[in-house]
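Re-running STAS domain-containing protein to confirm reproducibility after the cluster update. Everything else is unchanged from the original entry.
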Amino acid sequence: MEEKLGVACSVTLVGGLALAVLAKLGLGKVATFFSNSLITGFTVGASIHVCTSQVRTLLGLRVPRYNGSFKVIRTWVAVLSNIHRTNPATLIVSVISILAVYLVKKFVNERYKARLKVPIPIDLLLVVGATVVSYFAGLHVNYGVSVVKDVPTGVPIPRIPEVTHGLEFVTDAVAIMVVCYAQSVAMAKILALKNNYKVDADQEMFACGVVNIVSSVFSGFVAAGSMSRSLVQEGAGGRTQVASLVAAALVFVVIMVLGPYLYHLPGCVLSAIIVVSLRAMILKILTVRSLWRKSPVDAVVWCVTCVAVVVLDVDIGLLVGVVVSVVLVLVRSQVHIVDVVEEIRVGVSRVWRPKGQYRTQQDMAGTRVAKINGPLFFANAEMVINSIFEKTGVNPINMKQEGELVVEEIVDQNGGTELSVVFSSQSREDVESRSEDTPADVDKVQEVQADRPTPDELSLKKSMLPVRKLILDMSGVTFVDEMGVEALNLLIAEYDSVGIDVYIAAVPTRCLGQLKSAGFVSKHRDIIFVTTEAVFEHLS
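Result of re-run:
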């Protein structure tokens, strides 16, 4: 046992040190990847875990504890299988406790909070009252109600854990701490949104690291933000760190002095307080419908995260939620990212809006303005180019394929001389159907060559294109990577090959530096303009 305790304390110490260092490096901002939907889904799932763990205590059942994936489902199966063994006395105490806490908080503290200087501390009163009743009524001895029993007093002697044990499990230590930090910052963000204050992610990470370092010195295990305790405190009216300080002081007094006096406290009373405190969090399930109407993507993140946490456990569920969020971000970066826009004159102002939405739009004949509404990077570069081809109505690749000239080298059967003969696309089938042993028909070659369009015909064909000039509005681009720059070069080259001029407009300053370092600006300096209007002035 001593060795296991040493390993646990070492893992706690190493994990705490890792979190503290990462916080000072500014990596606490990784919490920005936790959207409100992910955080809410995660906390609701964790709340279901906590409530499930309290059910057997509320009913007075003796069912095994499960760990790992599907533990919520397995616990409920065990509870329902043994429901006939419910202790009636425990159930009565649980129901009375739940009703007392709920009714006082809902219909007294909330309704008359303007008149009450201090909310009624129903949790504390219930604990004291239940302990007294349990002692004099002999609930444990006479009715089999489980009680807290012995509460160890005193604080362990501080000592530095063996770091070598923690280094052996450094990967596990970091993984555990990431989950602890995620749970803590998620709870902090939930309460911050509810009470209108901000959360410093780096400070939260550093605090989580320091707490675990101190905990390991006093033979403590991994510590994180407690959802049940946080909600109980918030429900009691605690809003600042003073409330946490008072709560910690009371816990310290209990550990040092009052522990023996809680011997007869029914465990179901504590479970009842926890379940009532989690009620508001679990009821957030009812908000999924309205969230779906507002944002189906956020609703998907919410549901997937919550279900994963409930079914697969807290750590795996959090990972699933983050992965799903990142995947959806990548998917959304490829959808509706390009719009063909037109100018709208509002008084003396000019604005650009998607084509077809307003009747007052104006458009310059033969010119299209395509706006990119997002980043241009490896994940969506190809999609952006194809979308521009589709929405402008001119796909240079298809145009070249339709008028493609097939180059075939024909070997003169007599002299073995290689002749480079150009066939039009209409003659492709004739060329491919000809056997390799069949000599080339020079008259046929000359006839095919005569079908090639003349320069005047090509010029006439280009003048008939719906688009002769394309303006690429990049004001909505957030960043560009190497593949994004290559995509721009490809776009310009493809349109140039069919006689369409491309102009780049409104490149954000943050992206201009990236284009300069990639050599794009020096290569295409003549076609880059500050605004879309500047391009039209240049063309006029």
